[in-house]
Amino acid sequence: MSKNRLIIVDISSFIFRAFYAIRVLHSPAGVPVNAVHGVLSMLLKLLSKYQPTHILLARDTKGGSFRNELYPEYKANRSAPPEELIPQFDLIKQLIDHMGLPSSTMAGFEADDLIGSACVQWKDSFDEILIASGDKDLMQFIGDNIRMLDTMKDKIYDREGVFEKMGVYPNQMVDYLSMVGDASDNIPGMKGIGAKGAAKLLAEHGTLEKCIEIKDTLKGKKLTTAFGEYLNDGLLSKSLIEIKTDVDLGLTDVESKFSFYPEDSLLNFLKDLGFKSAVVKLEDMKFAHHQAEQGGDLEANAPSSNIEVLEFNEEAKGHILNASCIGIDPQFTSTDIRTFELSALSVSIENNKSYFLDESIAKNFLFEILGNEKLTIATSDYKSLLHFSFSNEQDLNANIFDITQAQFVANAGERNNLASLSEKYLGSGLAVFDKKTPFAFENELSIVTNVSTARAHANYRLKEMLFDELKEKELLTLYEEVDNTLTPVLAKMEYNGVFVNEAFFKEYELELQKKLDSLQEKIDKHSLEPINLNSPKQVGAFLFDELGLPVGKKTKTGYSTDSSVLEDLAAKNISEVPALILEYRELGKLLSTYVKAIPQLINGTTKRVHTHLNQNIAATGRLSSTNPNLQNIPIRTENGRRIRKGFIAGPGNILLSADYSQVELRLLAHFSKDQTMISAFNDGIDIHRRTASEIMNVPVENVESSDRSKAKAVNFGLMYGQSSFGLAAALKISRKEAKEYITNYFERFSRVKSYLDELKEECEKSGYSVTMMGRKRFLPDIHSTNRTVKANAERVAVNSPIQGTAADIIKRAMINIQNEMDKNQLKTQMILQVHDELIFEVPEDELDQMKIILKDGMEGVVTLDVPLDVDMGIGVNWFDLK
DNA sequence: ACGCCGGCGTAC
DNA sequence: GACGTACGCCGGCGTA
């Protein structure tokens, strides 16, 4: 038996929102119709998404309400509706009639009074009532079976939801608004009390009356004036805000039942208005309706899915546990990896069919299958299953096949989310939850069932196809031994998290803010009006139009103001402004991207940040880090590097880091077999110094530090396929000089040149680049006839094997090290990877043992023609790791 | 109000 | 046209 659900719609607010949301459109007859169109689509969405059995459209009347007699200023701040909206009110009335939707209007009362009356009078007639409105005033009616729906945000508020948003409960809403006032209705409230103050008072004293009783004990000048001088405003406000609940609605609860069917009269009405696409949509609906009546069970609200939903019972359980491979789709309740819960689970073991398990049974069954070592489970997110096992202290013994990761290995750089894969391999896309309600539990059960069962089925089907593709492309071993084995290591790192000194960030924030304010002030003195220094557009106009400084680079949209431009200007010494802006930019970056952002991501329970280490994003095979990105914490400038003081070891522990020294250049030496380079590494000579000596023709001992920096840039530029143009720009030297360095380099390191050329040729032949471990990156652009596109692909072909091999090496090291730590039952935790560096949080008594494990684990991954050197550092925080 | 993109800057 | 791999902040613009 399906539930009775009433939706009460505040139609006036729909009309205004629709009008302003859509630009003015006209019907063939020249009448403006944008609001009509908007209201129609909002109503259709409401019907399909929330499937009400009953509906009531509450409308305002043209004349004022009793409130205007009480307070002539009521809503006096509202200007008359725009001219183009006026004729649409009547059209919308007609629209509602054609749609056959029950509506109500009553002279002397506003829509709010009708909504309140319906809530109170009909409360017991429905299982559920949804108020579709954005009006905070109506929140007072929220209760056991009454919730409020904000259609713009697609958010539903219940009692707790109101408290979260407003800081007060629904039954305190009237008192709250009486104090705070409501600018949109010109309700004064009590001057001196804001949102926070009102919430605090009501939390302490419960009601406005109670507050008035004890007003003499209130402290603070603002509060005493508010409860003295402005108390009457509060009481007047209250009388305006209170909503009538005894208005005659003109229809009964039973009469609000409706069933929407697009009749011809509606279609003709819409055709006259010129709504072509809406007419097509409704005709489709009519057709679907017709089909359904013929015996189908099509659900209009749910995204279409052809997966048959099987009943999950004891027998089904047996089938699943005995299957060789199952596809699953777990739906979790949040992205907080330490606390999320399971809200649903689908399982598929045959074509076009899935079982669906709701919250009550999903969890235990998921534990059961995850614990079963004989099962192979195909899923799209192995890491989440691991987190779920960790937080519930359950074993994960099953063999997991991660569809997303398999696609990443098979086709790095291509899209790898389940929906794209379903489209690519199964020929049909997947329904997804609305962006505003991304978690299953926020959606209707029928939608959850459709989405989830289809995903489990897709995982089931894709497993075999991707397994075969990996095998076919000789990537299966890489997937199994590297990527799939690394996932539990990463899951553990994320779960561990990095301990943060929150107080440090707070202090640094104040310091930076102060410096930024003073810089802003200093810069504003040079300008007629204040500049938003975070806006490149405003900075450009200021520097080049107002101050008339010489224009350097341009971007697509205007003047370039990036650091190289500002540095050039600063060097010219015409104005102090460019240097000030550079300083502002540096500190502003630190403040917004790191110092303010990171504390917001601290987990309240662990006091740590739990970054996501993504394994299937970077096309070379590197990891990436998000929320927060801990792989780009500053180190180069002093101000930036200080941020690292905020990342600390937990009590009794110490941080230990180990990084590969020059790993990519060592790989270049190994791959190219260039003896000059190899001997430099074997003899322990500083590679940049050696390079400088070669390309500048000076003895190693005479290399200046500026020469070394240039050589360093040449070394790195090479691996990225940098041109003389790029090198010149980077080093601020002439193109001629840059070109000379590159020419000299290739003369002295001739094997490097031929190696890089070979990489391009190989890629041209095979269509892909490949790392030492066999990780492939397919580069169709290598065959492009467009010179720029081809040149890009060539640079990628040169860079990927080097960057990718380094990535594979450290991944293997991580696996070996975690194994070794487990074997020795160490308490040490791996907490971070930054491409060529690993960071551990180590109990002091495990330090010596860990140093050995790290050195062996990292240096021993592969044997090259040059040593793989590892440098280590310890410290109580990340800054001190030296 | 929200989403997307450009500009910019941080890391390796 | 010109340096590879990422992430993420902010402003500004377009769209709903």
TrEMBL record:
The keyword DNA repair applies. One of its GO terms (molecular function) is DNA binding. It is an enzyme of class 2 (transferase). It comes from the Bacteria. Transmembrane segments: none annotated. The keyword Nucleotidyltransferase applies. Belongs to the DNA polymerase type-A family. In addition to polymerase activity, this DNA polymerase exhibits 5'-3' exonuclease activity. GO terms for biological process: DNA-templated DNA replication; double-strand break repair. SUPFAM superfamilies: 5' to 3' exonuclease, C-terminal subdomain (SSF47807), DNA/RNA polymerases (SSF56672), PIN domain-like (SSF88723), Ribonuclease H-like (SSF53098). Its EC number is 2.7.7.7. The lineage of its organism: Bacteria, Pseudomonadati, Bdellovibrionota, Bacteriovoracia, Bacteriovoracales. This is DNA polymerase I. InterPro entries: 5-3_exonucl_a-hlix_arch_N, 5-3_exonuclease, 5-3_exonuclease_C_sf, DNA-dir_DNA_pol_A_CS, DNA-dir_DNA_pol_A_palm_dom, DNA/RNA_pol_sf, DNA_polI_H3TH, DNA_polymerase_1. It holds the Pfam family 5_3_exonuc. It catalyses: DNA(n) + a 2'-deoxyribonucleoside 5'-triphosphate = DNA(n+1) + diphosphate. PANTHER family: DNA POLYMERASE I (PTHR10133), DNA POLYMERASE NU (PTHR10133:SF27). NCBIfam families: pola, PRK05755.1. Residues 4-259 form the 5'-3' exonuclease domain.
